[in-house]
């Protein structure tokens, strides 16, 4: 189990990715995102996760630069938006993201949503960028088992990561075990279900036992499932609190009780029905 924010899991191509990072979904471009990222970096985070559609890549890049932390000590992820899928468009969109971030290479690039019929062409562009050394690892986001099987039937490079909605109300058992079998790291976005889990009685009870917050219990549960996690916060005290999950361990029984909270319910869209950006 990881013992600190610097601890990493090794992706199937040998690249080391931190178990925990800061997500910046819905964090406003400009001062808010710059301060949020700087607070995380100052307090030991080394992994930052953004996306083209978040509209805050420039702020993330500015914070990285101003932090003074050597580039090679950080792990930066961004994602390709739906409207940019397809081979040529992907290559252009990647360059745009890199200019905004002000980086000369990326640690992880993800296809944000599968959509229906372009992700294989998109993946070919990802493979090219990967082979050209512009990205250290490539992956997908919001892919179900059937999307992964379809993609891998023609891919030369297997995705290293699949970032999906994952929390105690959406335990994704089948997807998690499929990804483990395939050596694809599963990563949780919205691990706290956008705050909707913070009043869950079982989680409150467990949190009290360990003198932790409900958020910390959920993030610890992620890690004990071998799932990478990227909680989002804009408040420094919360960013610090979210990372304080390395000094306690849930029992197997507690992990299983939390698993039983599953309702297959989502805070975000279902990957099979999302059309936003693809129209």
Give structural notes.
38% of the residues lie in helices and 15% in strands. With 279 residues, the chain is α/β, with parallel strands linked by helices. It has a single domain (8-259), classed as NADP-dependent oxidoreductase domain (TIM Barrel). Strands 3-4-5-6-7-8-9-10 form an eight-stranded parallel β-sheet. Strands 1-2 form a two-stranded antiparallel sheet. α2 links the parallel β4 and β5. α2 (57-67) packs across α3 and α3 crosses α4. The longest helix is centred in the middle third of the chain and has 15 residues, at 87-101. The model has no long low-confidence stretch (mean pLDDT 97).
Chart the SSEs and their pairings.
Layout lengths: L7 E3 L5 E3 L3 E2 L7 H12 L4 E3 L7 H11 L7 E6 L6 H15 L4 E6 L7 H13 L3 E7 L3 H8 L8 E5 L7 H10 L2 E5 L11 H10 L3 H11 L3 E2 L6 H7 L9 H8 L20
Average pLDDT rating? 97
Low-confidence spans: none
Shape: globular
CATH architecture title: Alpha-Beta Barrel
Strand content: 15-25%
Terminal CA distance reads 43 Å
Strand order of the largest sheet: 3-4-5-6-7-8-9-10
Roughly how much helix do the residues carry, as a percent range? 25-40%
**At the third CATH level, what is the topology name?**
TIM Barrel
Query: Number of DSSP strands?
Result: 10
Which sequence of SSEs, written as H and E, runs from N to C? EEEHEHEHEHEHEHEHHEHH
- Which superfamily, in CATH terms, is the homologous superfamily? NADP-dependent oxidoreductase domain
Q: How many domains would you count in the coordinates? A: 1
How is the main sheet built?
Answer: 8 strands, parallel
**Roughly how many Å is the radius of gyration?**
18 Å
What is the top-level CATH class?
Alpha Beta
Q: Give the helix/strand class.
A: alpha/beta
Oligomer: single chain
What's the number of helices? 10
